[in-house]
Design a protein that fits this description.
Layout: E1 4-13, E2 16-26, E3 31-35, H1 42-49, E4 57-62, E5 65-66, E6 75-78, H2 90-102, H3 111-127, H4 143-155, E7 161-165, H5 173-189, E8 193-197, H6 201-207, E9 210-215, E10 230-235, H7 240-244, H8 246-262
Parallel strand pairs: 3-8, 3-9, 6-7, 7-8
Antiparallel strand pairs: 1-2, 1-4, 4-5, 9-10
Helix pairs in contact: 2-3, 2-4, 4-5
Bound molecules: adenosine-5'-triphosphate.
Pfam families: ABC_tran (PF00005)
Family: Belongs to the ABC transporter superfamily.
Protein name: ABC transporter ATP-binding protein
């Protein structure tokens, strides 16, 4: 069970308000997609959920507790690029996180523990279709394969929350489509909440159980930094049965059309 609450969250850099009055309650096992214009604060929101940034006002609660002040292993992240370590093999990349967690000084496990971890990592690599590439280095992989590796690297830590920042943005359409299927399946198989940022509206509505748009409701041409962005549209989460029903599909289509015309 993982619930996330953003309670009147603001983010300011000096005099500049980037985000203001962000209120959001996320149920367990949600797939939230954040959309919005460039520079509006989507990544900043994601970085606050990762504790790479702190709200300047308001609070973020995970399972009712204030979010940890530093990044923790139960919150994984995949960026558009460069999430993997170039000097480690595919298998080494997947084993790295658990090894550092179990052995913070050496960053290495030995004997039976290492073998057990290797087995676990290979199972995950098989799941993302990279088992036969386990001994290669990331630069020997295509962009899509590197993103599958980044997913495996995040998933081995069994995150409660997986944050995805435009993870498919650099991929060609065919690879993107196969990544959509994979990430949706991985989300269904694992007990985790996903929060994803994308610029692609069709991707947002295809993958998300809930889609929010972030935008600036007020602007002051004399002082563009005076007002921040907030949640401007919110398509509520639906239970899986309702989600699969025809009625919901029709509503979703309508909502999508409204959103497209609003942007
Ligand atoms: N550390 C920082 N110091 C000052 N300003 C920052 C900092 N980090 C982000 N910003 C500003 O906050 C605003 C929001 O940035 P952010 O990257 O969150 O936007 P975004 O919606 O993810 O944009 P994009 O879609 O282009 O990736 C930007 O104007 C950016 O310049």
């Amino acid at each position: 069970m993982t619930t996330i609450v953003l309670d009147d969250v603001w983010k300011e850099y000096d005099d500049r308000i980037v985000l203001e009055r962000v209120n959001l309650t996320l149920d367990d096992h949600e797939f939230l997609v954040i959309i919005g214009p460039s520079g509006v604060g989507k990544t900043t929101l994601l970085r606050m959920l990762l504790s790479q940034e702190r709200p300047t006002r308001g609070r973020i609660l995970i399972d009712g507790e204030p979010i940890a002040p530093e990044p923790t292993h139960d919150r994984g992240v995949v960026f558009q690029r460069y999430s993997v370590f170039p000097h480690l093999t595919v298998l080494g990349n997947v084993m790295r996180g658990p090894q550092w967690l179990a052995s913070p000084i050496l960053g290495r496990l030995f004997g039976a523990k290492r073998r057990a971890l290797e087995e676990q990592a290979m199972t995950l690599l098989t799941r993302v279709g990279l088992a036969e590439h386990a001994s290669k280095y990331p630069q020997q992989l295509s962009g899509g394969m590197q993103q599958r590796l980044a997913l495996a690297q995040a998933l081995i830590m069994k995150p409660k929350v997986l944050l995805l920042d435009e993870p498919f943005g650099a991929l060609d359409p065919g690879t993107r489509a196969s990544m959509h299927t994979l990430v949706r399946e991985l989300w269904e198989e694992n007990e985790m909440t996903i929060v994803m940022v994308t610029h692609d509206l069709s991707e947002a509505f295809l993958l998300g159980t809930r889609v929010i748009a972030v935008d600036r409701p007020r602007t002051d041409p004399q002082a563009p930094e005076r007002f921040g962005a907030t949640i401007s549209s919110d398509f509520e989460a639906k239970s899986r049965i309702v989600r699969q029903s025809r009625r919901f599909e029709a509503e979703r289509q309508n909502a999508r059309l409204q959103l497209i015309s609003a942007h």
